[in-house]
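ok so dumb question maybe but i'm new to this and my supervisor (M.) told me to 'just get the structure for ZFY21 protein' and walked off. so i did the thing. is this what she meant?? sequence i used:
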Amino acid sequence: CPRCMQCDTKFDFITRKHHCRRCGKCFCDKCCSKKVPLPRMCFVDPVRQCAECALVSQKETEFYDKQLKVLMNGATFFVTLGTSDKSELMVCRLSNNQRYLVLDGDSHYEIEIIQISTVQILTEGFTPGGGNTRAIGMILQYKVPGSEEMMQMKFTASEDFSSNKKLSASWLAAMHKVSKSAKTYTKGEK
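this is what came out, is it supposed to look like this??
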């Protein structure tokens, strides 16, 4: 690798090459100067990464430290299937293998994460200035395996208990953050 893969600077005796520990590409010191932990690849101490990989590593760490725990613990919602006017009180959580959204109540549903096409967070309290909104529910659209049919579920936070309401809002915020990140990663991969 005779040149930096970011800025095209030529490597020589003074300008040394460095490898990003995440992607493995060669960079000069300026383009690969961030040191970020990378526990997923067994680097305990912060290691040198290019700017793009450092950002991904930071988001990944935030996901594993914050959102994943909230999603796996779950929260209680009133769930409405499709266009039905009946809703059922269910606990919604991410499965232990992180591949399914599990809903438990009188009924039981498991939705494969890869089949989810749209996550829309429902909010209330929107002001013209754009502040003071809070998540009160979500609409989830997903494909039924073995079919082209799209299904929809509406989740509404329970108004009964203030602690449950707070837990539901935290769960919805984590789901929103994860769905936004997933869109960003998907766009970047194309």
